[in-house]
Amino acid sequence: MAVDEPESAAPSGAGVQRRVLDYWESHGVPTRGLDGPPDGPVFRFSEGPPGANGVPHMGHLVSRVIKDVQLRYRRMRGHRIVSSKGGWDCHGLPVEIAIERRHGFQSRKEIEAYGVERFCEECRAATLEYAAVWQEMSRRVGYWLDYDHPYRTMDPTYIESVWWSLKALYDRGLLEKGHYVLPYCPRCETSLSSHEVAQGYREATDPSVTIRFPITGPGIGRRSLLVWTTTPWTLPANLLVAARADLEYSVVRTAEGEELVLASDAVPRYFPDGVAEVERMRGTAFEGLSYEPPFATPGPGPGRYRVVLDGFVTSTEGTGFVHIAPSFGPDDDRIGTREKVGVFDPLDDRGVFGDHLTLVRGKSFKGADPILIRDLEDRGRLFRSETIRHTYPFCWRCDHALLYRAIDSWFVRTSRFTDGLVRNNAEVAWIPEYLRDGRFGNFLTEAKDWALSRSRYWGTPLPIWECPDGHVTCVGGFAELAERVEGGLASPFDPHRVPVDRLKVRCRSCGAPARREPYTIDVWYESGAAPFAQFHYPFEPGPFDPQRPLDYVAEGLDQTRGWFYTMHVLATALFERPAFTACLVNGMLLDESGRKMSKSKGNAVEPLDLLDRVGGDAARWAFLAIDFTEPMRVSEAIVAKSAARTIGTLRNVVAFHLGNARADRLPPPSGRPSAAGLLDRWILSRLEGTRAAVDEALGRFDPRPAATAVRELVDDLSTWYVRRSRPRFWSDDDPADRRAAHDTLAYVLLGIARVIAPLVPFTAEWIHQEVGDHGYTSADASVHASGWPGSLGLRDPALEDGMRELRALAEVGRELRQRAGVKSRIPLAEMVLFGDASPAVAAMGPDGDRLLADELNVKRLVRVPASERSHYPDPGWVVREDDSVPRAALPRRPTEALLEEGLAREVARRLQQRRKELGLRLTDQVRVAIGAEGALYRALDARRSALAKELLAEPFELLEHALPDGEDVVAWELDGVTFSARVSRRAT
RNA sequence: GGGCCCAUAGCUUAGGUUGGCUGGAGCACCCGGCUGAUAACCGGGAGGUCGUCGGUUCAAAUCCGACUGGGCCCA
Residues A886, A772: one domain? Predict the structure, then answer.
C-alpha cells in the first residue's frame, strides 16, 4: 500500500488560523458571508463605534468576540444582518487633544489664533489614524464586519441625521438652553455631561481646611462660625453661609478665650479633649447674621455675606456651616438663586484667577490653594488645616482636575422622560440580568438633564441659530438649511466648523441675520444616534425601522453609562421604544494577579501580540469559557491554557482522524452514518444533544452554556469514543465496522465544526475543510456558508445514561487493577460485578459488557448476586465495596497464558515504538529480527504470524537467543527478562 | 455616604434562583497506566474552616442579617 502524504500531526492554533485566513481572504469568504442571506428574516444589530485615533486594548477584543459569536450564529440561522457595518466615532476631544499636542497648544485661544478651520482639517486627517490596527485586530480574531463601508460620525450624511434628531427633540421641547452649574474641564475649556464625569472619578489628596467666619452683626459678641471646605479656591467666591434650621449648634470657649460656633455633633471631632460649652441653640438662631468674608472681593452687591438656612446641610462631615459660592456648586447655585445674591466667578475659562484678587492673580484654581491658605493663616482666620484623600472627578479625556462652574449650556431634558426610560428598560433582556434593575436601572431613575453642548471645534455643530431679537431657529437638515441661506449651500456641503459658521442664515421668525450657537455637541450623542444615523435616516430609504429596536448589542460594562445609555435616551425620546431588546455586557479585564489592567501600570496585554502568538480562536475560547460578565483575569498563559483543553484536544482528534482517513484513503461520509454500534449511536446522540444545547443558549444570546456543552462533548469524544474505538480504526477483521467507525467520527467532527462555527470560526473552518475534504477551494464550501445544522443524530437519553454508568464502572475497574498491581496491558480472566445491572446498562446488552471488558482488558464480565461476596476472598481477589456493599471484584493475578499474551503485546508495542523512532510511516514494510528466551520466546513463537502482520514485517525472524550486538540492535528488559530486536526498513 | 457585583483546594473555577446523599471539575503537584493523537491520552492520590460572625431550619456553600476584603458605579 502506497502512501503519498506524510502523517499529519495536529497543527498549532496559530497554524490553523494562518491556513484559514489565507483561504478566507483568497476566496472572499468574509465578504460574501457578512450580511447573511438577503431574503432572510432581519436581525438588527449595530456595532458600537470605537474612536480610531487610539489603539485598541484587550477589552475591545472581548466584546468583539462576544458580538461575533451571535452574528455568526444568526447568519447560520439564515438571518439577514442589519447592519454589519463597521463604525467609527470620529469627533471629539481625543482627536482635538492629539492635534493640540502636536502644536503644543495650551488653550482654546491658541487654537483660534492658529485657525479653527485648519485645526479641524488636521483633526479630520488624524481621526482614523489607527483604523488599520483596529481592522487587523478584528481580522485576527475573526470578527466579520463591513470595514469597506463603515459608518462614520463625521460624514455629512451622518451629521444630517443627527441634526434631524436634534430638531425632533427641539420641536418636542426636549432641547433647551439653560444656565447650570456643570462639571467643567478648564484645560479643554468645556463642560462635561454627568455620564462623562462618571468615567473620571479618582482618588486624590486635597486640602481640608476649617476657617473662622467672624460674626459682624450686633448682639452676638465676638464669635466666629467655623466653616469647613476641601476647595479653598472657592472661598474668594463666597457669598453666603448655610446652616440647617433644625440642627443643634454649640458655642464653645477655647482655652484662649475665643468663642467658636459649630454643630454640636461636630464638637467631639474638633475638640477631642473636651472644651467649655457656653451655649446651645438651633440653626434658626443664625438666620440673617452677617459675617466677615474670608476674602474681600468685588462680588455682586447687597444681600451677600449672611447666614441662610437650607436642608442640604449636614453635620456628619464638617461643622454644620457650609460656605456657599454660587458659581461653583449645584447646591450653591440653587441657594444663591433663591437668595438672589447673584453669581461671582473670579476664574476665567481656563480656571485661572483674574484681577479681582491680586493675591492669586494668574494662578490656576488648584494652584491657588496654598497661597490662599497661607494668607488665611497670616490673618488668623485659619482654624485647622489638614489634607484629605477622597474621590474627585477628573476629565476622562485629558485627566485634568474638573471643577463645577456656572455656565450656559444646551440640555436634553432627560429628566422629563425618566418614566419612559424606566418603562422601556423593563423590556430589555440584560445579560447579566441584574444590570437591568441594578446599575442601569438606578441610573435611569435619577437621570439628570443631559448637558449637550461643548465649546469645542471638531464635532457635530449644534444646528441652532439665534437672531438679535432672540428668535431661535433649529435646523433639521441640509435642505432646510439651504432655504435659510442666501445663495444656498456649497456642493458638496461640509457641515463642520468653520464652513457652517460662515453661512449667512436668516431667522425663521423675522428673517434677520442669525448667529449660530457656537457649540459642538457631546460625542456620546452622536454614537447614541448610530442605529438610525448610519442609514442617513430619514433622508434616504433604508432598512432602519423607527418602530423596531436593535435585536442585540454587546459592549463592556463601561458602556452602561456611555453608549447603552445614550442610545436608550435617544430611542426613548425619538421613537418611544427601547433602543435594543438584548444587551450582553462583559466585565472589565484584570491582569494575571487580579489588578485592573491599564496602560499606565504597564500590565496591559496587547491584543495584537496575543492574537499573533496563540491565534484568534484561543482568545475567543478563553473569553467564552470563563464568566465574562465578571471582572476577568487575562494573560497569555491563561488564554493558552484554557484553549488547550478543548480546542487543542479537538485538534488532536482531528489529526488522529485525518491520519487514519489518509492511510485508508477513505472519503468523508455523504450522509449521517447508519450507526448500528453502541459507541456510534452514543456519540451521535451526544452530538445532537450538544447541537441542541448550543442552539438554545445562543438563541437567548448567552454563549457561556454553549461553550460548556461543547467542552463536554469534546471531552466525551476524545476520552471515550476515540479511546474505545481505536482498535476499530485499524482492524482488518471487520471492514464494515472499521468503515462505520471512520464514517461516524468524520460525521461527528463535521457536525462539531458546524456547531462550533459561531464560537471558534477558524478551528471550525479548518475541520470542515480538512475532514470534509473541501480543499479550501471555494467560498461556497465554507463552514460559515453551511447554515445552522438541523438534527445531527438521534438522541437516546437512556443510552447516554447507560454509558455514564458504564464509565463509572470502568473507573472502579481501573482502581481495582491498580490495587492489584496488574497493568492494563496484561489481560485478566474476568471482572466480577455484584448485583444486577441497572436498567440503563442492561439495555446496552452484551455490547455494553464487551465495551467495559475491553476497556479493562478482561476476558469476560461475570454478574453474581451480592450475597456471593464470600466466593471472592482476599487472597485471590481485590474487591471494591461501597459502604460494605460489594460492587466489583478482579483477580489479583493473570493466568500463565494471559501473562504470555500480555508479554507478547508488550513486545509488539516496543517494536511499534521502534518503527516510529525510525521515522517510518504506518504503512512502511520492515524486516524484523527478534531474540528472546524461555517464556517470552514461547509467547512470541505462538503468535508469529499475528505479530508479523501487525508490524508489517516480512521477513519476520524469531531466534531463541539474544541477537549479537550491532548498531541497529536494540535490547529491552521486560519484567526481568531481556530481549533484543532489529527493525529496518525494507526497500519498496 | 449610597448602589450593584464578587469571595468555594496553590491557581482558574462548577454548584447557589428550587436548602438534603462523601461540595464537582481543570491546571499545577505526587504515584501509576496507556501507547498507530505522543509537547497527546487515561486512572489514582493528596489538597477545601465553601471570606468571618450570627440567625432561620431536623438539615445551610446554598436562605436572611451584620461584618471583612476586592471590583465597578454614583454622590
Answer: no
- Clarify whether residues A881 and A903 are in a common domain: no
Alpha carbons within 13 A on the beta-carbon side of A610: 27
pLDDT at A606 over 90: no
Do A885 and A910 sit in the same domain of this protein?
no
State whether the beta carbon of A818 lies below 7 angstroms from any atom of strand B.
Answer: yes
The pLDDT tens digits of the residues spanning A488-499 come to 888 889 999 989
| Residue A646 CB burial class (10 angstroms; 0-12, 13-18, ≥19) | buried
Residues 295-334 of A with CB under 7 A from strand B: 316
Q: What is the per-residue pLDDT across A351-397, written as a single tens digit (0 to 9) for each?
A: 889 888 888 888 888 888 899 999 999 998 998 888 776 667 777 66
Which CA-bearing residue is nearest the C1' of B27? A641
Could you say which of A450, A563, A682, A788 is catalytic? A563
Angle at A85 between CA A80 and CA A90, to 5 degrees: 160
Residue A298 sits in which domain range? 201-393
Residue whose entry in the numeric block shows the C-alpha cell 428673517 = A511
Compute the CA torsion angle A565, A571, A572, A577 (nearest 10 deg): -120
Closest by alpha carbon to A369, among A351, A356, A344?
A351
Q: Which of A109, A596, A823, A916 is catalytic?
A: A596
CB A264 within 8 A of CB A250: yes
Strands A926-931 and A953-959: what pairing? parallel
Q: Any catalytic annotation for residue A818?
A: no
CA angle (A834, A839, A844) in 5-degree steps: 95
Q: SS3 for A778-803, per residue?
A: CHHHCHHHCCCCCCCCCCCHHHHHHH
Active site residue A109: no
3-class state of residue A711 by DSSP: helix
Tell me if A534 is assigned to some domain: no
In the predicted model, what is the mean pLDDT of chain A?
Answer: 86
Residue A908 lies in a domain: yes
Determine if the pTM surpasses 0.90: no
3-state secondary structure (DSSP) of residue A171: helix
What is the spatial distance between Cα A686 and Cα A553, in angstroms, rounded to a whole number? 32
Protein CA at A380 to nucleotide C1' at B30, angstroms: 74
In chain A, the number of structural domains is: 4
> Is A233 annotated in the active site?
no
Residue A810 belongs to some domain of the structure: yes
β-pair type (A146-152, A85-88): parallel
Which comes out higher in pLDDT, residue A704 or A155?
A: A155
